Amino acid sequence: MSYPQSVGLGPARPALFRTPLNLFRALAVAEAISWTLLIAGLIVRASTEVSAAVTIGGGIHGFVFLSYGAAAVLVAKNQRWGAWPTIVAIASAVVPYATIPTELWLHRSGRLDGPWRLAASDDPRDGAWHDRLLRTLLRRPWLLAALIAAAVVVVFVVLLVIGPPGGRD
Questions:
Q1: What pLDDT does residue 156 have?
Q2: Residue ranges per domain, the chain?
């Protein structure tokens, strides 16, 4: 499958990743959906004693939770958010369904506007090593996606080894 080349976006990307808004919105919605799966699993376990429902819903929710957090950090760095919007974006994943109003707030306040920062601008912050690294990775979206996915998988596995919140039954 090929994607059309967009002006100023570097290598063509699937629509989901074309802008920070698209990525953040998709993962905010996915995080809300994963809450539904987790809550449904808890209800199934409470009413039928089928604990696999929580294992499945909880696993999906955990993975999406970590993915949303990684995307929030990436978008916050790209959009140059201050500490408050970044903390709100990450913390919103802890409260069921809060990622949706958070995404709406960030979008309406203009914090999700604009493209990925693929090239340096006149802004002096663009000279910092972490901004240069961000631009380098953003110009290689498949490498960036693979690195983020690997980090999410490592954290997910470590958390699985540690065990679920509240301990094991």
A1: 93
A2: 15-118+126-162
